[in-house]
UniProtKB/TrEMBL annotation:
Signal peptide: none annotated. GO terms for biological process: lactate metabolic process. Residues 155-303 form the Lactate/malate dehydrogenase C-terminal domain. This is L-lactate dehydrogenase. NAD(+) binds at G18, T19, G20, I21, V22, G23, D43, N105. GO terms for molecular function: L-lactate dehydrogenase (NAD+) activity. The keyword RNA-binding does not apply. The keyword Oxidoreductase applies. It comes from Lunasporangiospora selenospora.
Length: 325
């Protein structure tokens, strides 16, 4: 089947779970891009979901979409949506790492999945709550859907930040879309910028004068990983970047773009959920790529995977783990 690149399939129903700053921003971005004909907004704070629905209705004329606030009593309706975006959870605070959110957001995720179940067998679930890798692993187990249909936003935003920083280092001579460079593994402090196989038009980035020195590349990678802390310091939370990212993911699904995007997926090679370049289409994750890495990059990624496995095992639901053995 050839990819559909004409326009989005606006027959899709999108459910956005969690209408805080991220969920509301996702809803607005989706409305502006016309990615669906119907949006369901659900939050444990029903008043908040209703308020955002009323506000977003005033912008719905852009795409002639329908918006509905969903109450807890009929939350199962969200489970029947074509695409389910999970943005429910506490946001990262000043001086707080994404991993520090785990205990609180794990409990919220369990409650959310319970409320919206049963989930339609063909639904695609996008995890946008942090820590995204661990919660994606948990969501795959809780929903019972094929792993290819449950994935996280991963390091897509980090990769965009890296490419933007590279563009600036090159004085804007090359657009981000022409820069083939990825951040992989962790959407957090343990993320790994893959310089060894990064290219522009087949030319390795390390051969560019502006990027040939390791210290320059390390500064760029560090700035990419820590940008979130600067955003939090000045405005309390990030929202626009992740909203744009999730909207692009929905478009990749509805338009069956089969775009290669670094997303949180389950990797059989690593036996863990981590962010890797993945082909995203109408059925979800269709293929995973493993870019060439130098020994240092590979070691950093494997170190992260080991930490990830330990944490996931701790939060793994006993009855689900037993059923998988």
């Amino acid at each position: 089947m050839k990819p559909n690149t004409v326009g989005p399939n606006t027959a899709n129903k999108v459910a956005i779970i969690g209408t805080g700053i991220v969920g509301a921003s996702v809803a607005f971005a989706c409305l502006m891009r016309g990615v669906a004909s119907e949006y369901l907004l659900y939050d444990l704070d029903e008043s908040l979901a209703w308020g955002h629905t009323l506000d977003l209705e005033d912008s719905a004329f852009i795409s002639s979409a329908e918006l509905r606030a969903i109450q807890r009593t009929n939350a199962q309706e969200c489970g029947q949506a074509d695409i389910i975006v999970i943005a429910a959870g506490y946001r990262q605070g000043p001086g707080e790492t994404r991993d520090m959110l785990l205990t609180r957001n794990e409990n919220i995720l369990k409650d959310v999945i319970h409320c919206i179940s049963p989930i339609k067998s063909s639904a695609i679930v996008i995890m946008a709550t942090n820590p995204v890798n661990i919660l994606t692993d948990l969501a795959q187990r809780l929903t019972g859907l094929p792993r290819s249909q449950v994935f996280g936003s991963g390091t897509y935003l980090d990769t965009i930040r890296l490419r933007t920083a590279i563009k600036k280092a090159l004085q804007g001579e090359v657009e981000e879309s022409s820069i083939q460079a990825y951040v992989l593994g962790d959407h957090g402090d343990k993320q790994v910028a893959i310089w060894s196989s990064a290219t522009i038009a087949g030319t390795t980035l390390t051969s560019f004068e502006e990027l040939e020195h390791m210290i320059t590349r390390e500064k760029i990678a560090h700035a990419t990983a820590t940008k979130i802390y600067e955003i939090i310091e000045h405005k309390g939370a990030s929202s626009y970047g992740i909203a744009a990212v999730v909207t692009e993911l929905i478009l990749a699904i509805t338009m069956n773009k089969r775009t290669v995007i670094p997303l949180t997926v389950y990797s059989e090679r690593y036996d863990a959920c981590l962010s890797l370049p993945s082909v995203l289409g109408v059925r979800g994750i269709e293929r995973i790529f493993y870019p060439a890495m130098n020994p240092k990059e590979q070691a950093l990624l494997e170190d992260y995977v080991m930490c990830n496995r330990v944490i996931c095992a701790k939060y793994r639901i006993p009855e689900l783990a037993a059923a998988e053995e």
